[in-house]
Structures are given as C-alpha cells and as structure tokens.
C-alpha cells in the first residue's frame, strides 16, 4: 500500500514539475510572441500599451525646421495614460548616423527604440519610438510636445505623438500597431504598390458605434503633388480615399485621423494604403508618378459593446454611479454607467407596422443598452 501511495505521489510531483516548467517557458516566450514591431509591415508594439477611453494624435514635419511643435487635442479634463513619440528620417550612408536614435522633447534628450529593420530605397530609412508620457505638457485639453535635434544625415522627415487618454467614461478597445512599411509603385520590396494591410478585430455590438482611427505616414512630399490612396474596409464594405497624403503636418509628415461609423454586428476593420493614381488628371498630358511613403503607426479605438438589460432594469440604471446586477447567482458592480440609455425594440414587426402594443405576459419586448465598464 505504501508503495502505491509513493508511486502516486511521485507521479503527481513529476506532473507538477512539468507544469511549472511549461509555465516558465510560457513566461519566457510569451513576450517574444505577442510583442514585435514590424519590418516592411506594422505589428504589435514591443512595449506595453496603456488602457484608456480613447486615442488622439498629431505630428510635425521636420524637413525645413529644426524645432517643431506637436499639439494634440484631447477631452478637457482627461488624463494622459500614455504618450508615444515616433520620429523618422533617412541616413546618409548604408548604416545609421550617429545619435539619430535621439531627439529632444520639451528640452530633454530622449533615446528611442528602432522599430522595424531599416529599409533601403534611395537612402536607408529608420523609425524610432519612445514613451514620453512624463515629458508632455497638458493644458485645457491640449497635449503639447516641442521636438528638436533630429540627427538623420540625409533628411529629418518628422515626428508624431500618439496619445492614449482616459476621460472618465467607459474603457475602449484600443489596438496599436507600429513598424516600418515602405511603399512605392516602382519598389521591389514585396509588391511595392501596396502596404501590408492591417486588420483590426473587435467585439461586435448590436448597436452602431463611432470608432477613431489614427495613422502616421512620412516622406510624402508636399511641394509637388503625387497621388496615393487609402482603402478602409469594415467587414465587407470598402471606402477609398484618394490623395489624402500631402504633408498635412508640414513637409514630409502626415497624421491621418478618422472618425468611422462601425455598423451593428461588425467585427473587423482593415486599412490598406496604396501608391497608386485612382484619380488621373484629365487636364494633364503628363502622367504623375504616385507617391512613395512610409507607414509607421496605426491605432484604433472603439467603444465597448453595450450591455443588454430588460426594460424593467432601465429606470434603476439611469443616472446612477453604481448599480448591482444579479445574474446567474453572481453579483457584479457596474461602474461608470452612461446616463444616456438607448431603448431598442426587439419587436421590429409590431413597431414598424403600428400593431397592438399590448403584451399578454407583461413583457414590453424592449431592450435597454447601457455602455458600462466592470471592475
């Protein structure tokens, strides 16, 4: 009997050792799997990304100036949870120039991490990223950063500031991608004409929502017009915006910001920038060469999926800070409940036809959608 007990104990001990070993392997390799900046594509950043209720961004072209001021609008009173600075340029030779991984932010020297391998076109291009949350200044809904002392040997294209903020409302689904994706119609890297598309997936909602999409691009000249295109696909519906890249933040830097309607039940959004001329100029006898550009970062912020309660719960939930909901014998504290409650009828046929509103079982057939965040 003792032998049997000892044998069982040894088996359990060995199994425990194996489980501990596997857990250690997971801890070692998980960051390598989930965190990786992109080379000739965008990917998940190799640093942790803060949670928040929204994102905002701004930039400054640095080709023709030594100091640039980046200003980013956020809701008044919102807290900056994270500020990520990106800067990009081209070196003079085949390797990085001295100190090009540094930049001065609001008077302080900052060192950045290279994101993506350097890409060669006419020169080698490099992009760096640094967390500058503690360095930005905030005043009445405006986040500011003065940037200077970029040191790329060939050209300093520009810098961009991506902000994750919390304005006290419900936490959003936030997905950030960054890297170095060089695009040009005549390039030999992958197919050249198109960037590697980025697909963001999110929890579908029974209601329409408004999402925020932010992107950084560099190296599109604003001095001579050259065409480009940006395709945004939500589920199976694609919109194409032509010629949006044109040094919007100063020479050679573009920050694109979109507020997009996400239809009910949609679960994905794909972005694909292209070096292409979709809008040829009929008045011109000369073909215009499409733009070459670098796609450096993209971020999507989308409000959470509303929670559904029956109509009787709605008066209890409205305009309250904390509500306790008992569901399946579990009680959860519902925080930050929106006072704007949207009633949505589940009986489309009767509401559209003006049919009998009486309900024999006393159920109104309605629904109450509350945007909320759980502790």
Tell me what you see in this structure:
The strands form six sheets. Strands 1, 2, 14, 16, 19 and 21 form a six-stranded mixed beta sheet that branches. Strands 3, 5, 8, 9, 10 and 13 form a six-stranded antiparallel beta sheet that branches. The chain is mostly beta strands and 375 residues long. The protein is globular and about 55 Å long. Strand 9 and strand 10 (124-131) form a beta hairpin. The protein has three helices and 27 strands. Mean pLDDT is 77; it is low at 1-35 and 313-375. 11% of the residues lie in helices and 43% in strands. It has helices at residues 2-34, 314-317, 348-353; strands at 38-39, 42-43, 54-61, 67-73, 79-90, 102-105, 108-111, 113-114, 119-120, 124-131, 137-139, 142-148, 155-166, 173-183, 198-201, 209-218, 229-234, 237-242, 253-262, 268-274, 293-302, 307-309, 322-327, 330-335, 342-345, 366-370, 373-374.
């Amino acid at each position: 009997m003792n032998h049997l007990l000892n044998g069982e104990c040894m088996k359990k001990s060995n199994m425990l050792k194996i489980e501990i070993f596997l857990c250690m392997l997971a801890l070692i390799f998980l960051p390598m799997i989930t965190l990786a900046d992109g080379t000739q594509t965008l990917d998940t950043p190799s640093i942790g990304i803060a949670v928040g209720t929204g994102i905002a961004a701004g930039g400054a072209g640095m080709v023709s100036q030594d100091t640039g001021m980046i200003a980013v609008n956020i809701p008044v009173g919102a807290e900056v949870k994270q500020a990520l600075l990106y800067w990009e340029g081209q070196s003079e030779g085949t390797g990085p120039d001295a100190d090009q991984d540094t930049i001065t932010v609001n008077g302080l020297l900052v060192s950045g991490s290279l994101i993506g391998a350097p890409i060669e076109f006419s020169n080698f291009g490099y992009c760096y990223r640094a967390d500058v949350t503690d360095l930005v200044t905030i005043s009445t809904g405006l986040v500011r950063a003065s940037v200077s002392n970029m040191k790329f040997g060939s050209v300093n294209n520009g810098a961009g500031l991506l902000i994750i903020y919390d304005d006290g409302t419900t936490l959003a689904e936030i997905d950030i991608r960054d890297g170095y994706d060089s695009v040009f119609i005549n390039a030999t890297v992958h197919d050249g004409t198109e960037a590697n598309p980025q697909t963001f997936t999110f929890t579908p909602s029974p209601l329409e929502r408004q999402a925020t999409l932010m992107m950084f691009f560099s190296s599109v000249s604003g001095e001579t017009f050259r065409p480009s295109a940006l395709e945004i696909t939500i589920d199976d519906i694609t919109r194409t915006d032509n010629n949006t890249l044109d040094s919007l933040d100063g020479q050679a830097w573009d920050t694109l910001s979109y507020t997009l309607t996400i239809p009910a039940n949609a679960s994905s959004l794909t972005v694909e920038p292209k070096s292409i001329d979709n809008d040829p100029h009929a008045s011109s006898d000369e073909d215009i060469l499409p733009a070459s550009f670098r796609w450096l970062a993209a971020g999507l912020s989308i409000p959470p999926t509303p929670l559904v309660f029956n109509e009787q719960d709605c008066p209890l939930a409205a305009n309250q800070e904390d509500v306790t909901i008992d569901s399946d014998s579990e009680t959860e504290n519902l925080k930050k409940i929106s006072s704007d409650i949207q009633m949505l009828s589940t009986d489309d046929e009767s509401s559209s036809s003006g049919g009998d509103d009486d309900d024999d079982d006393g159920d109104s057939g309605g629904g109450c959608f509350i945007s909320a965040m759980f502790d």
